[in-house]
User: Fold these one by one.
Assistant:
Number 1:
Amino acid sequence: MNVSLYQKLAITLTALFIFIAGVFFYWGKHLEEQTRFESQQRLHLSLAPSLVRDNPLLQQGVYDYKALKNLFHTLMVLGPAFEFYLLDQSGKILTYSADRSLVKRDHISLKPIENLIQYRHPLPVYGDDPKHQTRQKIFSATPIFNGSTLMGYLYVIVAGERYVDTYAQVQKESKVEVSLVMLAIGLLALFILMLWLFRNITSPIRLLNIEMTLVTKQGFSQKDVSLNQWNEHSKNEVHQLGVMFHEMMGHIDCQFEKLKRVDLQRKTLLAEISHDLRTPLASLHGYLETLSLKQNDLSDKQKQAFLATSLKNASQLKLLIDQIFELAHIESGHVSIQNEQFNVVEVLYDIVDKFNLSTKAKDIKLIFDPTRHDIIVVSDINKLERVITNLIENALRHTPAGGQIALELLLTSERRCQISIKDSGVGINPQELSQIFTPRYQATNTMKVSHQKNIGLGLSISQKLLNLMGSQIAVESELGVGSNFSFELVVA
């Protein structure tokens, strides 16, 4: 059975209220009974002593049981609520006013009688009821002496069986009915109030549930769903949940849009890379096919030229494939960073030495002149080398002969240092700076060199590696002046 939260709350609170009302009802009834018995016993404490003091039969200490029985009967007629019993020193019942067939005990415990006589126990004090094996009732009692000798006790049940039956009948006909009516009215009023309160409490939850259901049916999109306006300043937890739900849906929509853009970029990138792969592959295939078919008709010089071109296309193809795999590996999230402490100056000198031949061949100066040689950083040395290599290669492609590239290392604070790669190349259009880290993007003023083709993945790889290393790459550029790529590292 499907039960809503509102129904569960209503059923639970109703059951709880009935339980609490029952506890209070019985507790109140018990308290009223205790109070009534205490007042009755306090009122009749002197009953038994007065009877012994005023009756000659009891004063003498010599009992005429028949006369006493008649006396008790007469007193019981005058006071139907009382029951009279004469006990010996041990508590044995000697005579009484009640019908013989109704008396179930032949002994009465003397301890409650002693507690009452000596005021050793707060009222009400309950004593044994001779008409029942286990029941106890309030009583009045007094010892009977013959001179200084204890002869027994006069034991008077204050609220006798006739009184209890009469009181129960009256209570049944009046107070019980009134109590039940009041309880029923109270329950009904509380039930109605409770339903109203619960409806107000659960109404926002129902609205939130409706919103979630509609959004789910729309494929977790809120574009075509009319959502409620939740009060973000409310202290009501449901309103706070509603606000967070709207924020979450906005975030999900934003993520969906990003996924769509990324998917579109991936398709575009795949199409463009396919073209880049096809071009050197087709050229490689063509030259090799020509060599295979016309090798006897070609001179040695032509064969060497064909082989050189094929090797160049094979190298270009390998470079493209390596960069595609590297970018895919980074984006897959499987790249781990292995940080260690090392002297960054030594690493930079090694990288500069690696470019000596290529810079001389292009007549470009690569300058590195640090002011300090003891800067220890915390980073991944292999990935740092990859980033700086990519940035220097990018600077070489965009710097004409006679230009220069400066590798700089500066301490920006006690815990940070900055590495910069500055070139005197063609620069980048300011409108294109935000796009240069997009895979395979090439600025409009990229130098076109016939013997070298740029596939546009180096900057994207560098940016992603730096992000994994906890750093950000920054770029400044001016057309015709050059570009400056920089990032920071943590100093040990």
Note: The mean pLDDT is 79.
Number 2:
Amino acid sequence: MNKISINNPYFITQLIEGNHNAYETLFHLYFEKLHYVAVSYIENTEDAKEIIQNIFLKVWKKKQILTPEMNLNAYLFKMVKNECLDYLKHTKVQLKYRKKLEIERAYLNEKALKNDPSQLLIESELQNKIEGLINQLPANCREVFIKSRIEGLKYAEIANELNISVKTVENQISKALRYLRHELQEYMGLFL
């Protein structure tokens, strides 16, 4: 059998008849070649190896569909291509399904947090605390901060409206933010 081509009708007939030596010869001659082709399609060595092993298993189990006239070489390479395409389609479906599950899980977690009474209580408490802290700011600082963060005015607009420099606006905002950050430290862990 050493000099027999795998496309030789005698060799294929031996496979059809279940000759283990013919099957082992086919395996040893083609495993690495088919594996190389599979890796070029899917880039995952272990999965490619599993695909090739499944192909040889199919050839053994469905040996009755082989015919002595067939081109076994072309048949094997076509099987690799088809199995790899099926693998890629399956992987794509899995990724899409996983992504969908992650989106649904994130949505449900967000919804659960929004509807969580303790979360609503914390948000309400935090809102009251922020309003109280803003009211404790010095009058000029409070006015600049409200115009910037609540009314949404730009620094230049605030400076123009209050007849102060943009630098003064920046300093007042920095002062307010430093104060709020310091006073709200206990809440920071909730939003990280």
Note: Residues 9-105 form a domain with the Rna Polymerase Sigma Factor; Chain: A fold (CATH 1.10.1740.10).
Number 3:
Amino acid sequence: MKRRRQILYSSIAILVILVIIIALCNISVDRNAEGRTFSNINDVPTMQTALLLGTNPKTRDGKRPSSFYLARINATAELYKHGKFRQLIISGDRREGYDEPQTMRHDLIERGVPDSIIMMDGQGYRTLLSLRNSKQNFGIHDMIIISQKWHNERSIFLADKMNIKAVGYNADDVRHPRAIWTHIRELLARVKLFIDLYVTHREDFC
């Protein structure tokens, strides 16, 4: 019985510590981005470059367009029409039979974004890599990041660590119950962010 009690108390202590770590990581990311993510397009500063972060164009069953994806595409087209950027980097995952940047490029051209201003990054399968590639491969040091607010907040935290001046334009979020796992995954992604930056020092290659 004593052994069981010890295991129970240890498990509870570990769980509490994990919850505290997750909360602290998320609070830090939120506070860091205060005043630098915008939902009103009129508040977005005009900058030379915008970075569109990729996501799967389809829902998990592959039958319908992803609402997260469509929101990012629409937000990018809206920004362009309001003259908020002059060149666009599309960054996402590209592998055999799957090409986020090319799909986004096609949909943006259909919405009036000129192909001539688009640059492609097919190695952006992580947010950290999207930002690194923008700086290393395209020489970008300031940008408008386009994604959902929670993703923009994490991206801005990364950008700060890479000495990139960034703001975020918030695409519409998805509040459907099926999207809850995306939001839970984001909570954990913010913990991974701190591991990358302060434990494994993944920003060192930037």
Note: The mean pLDDT is 92.
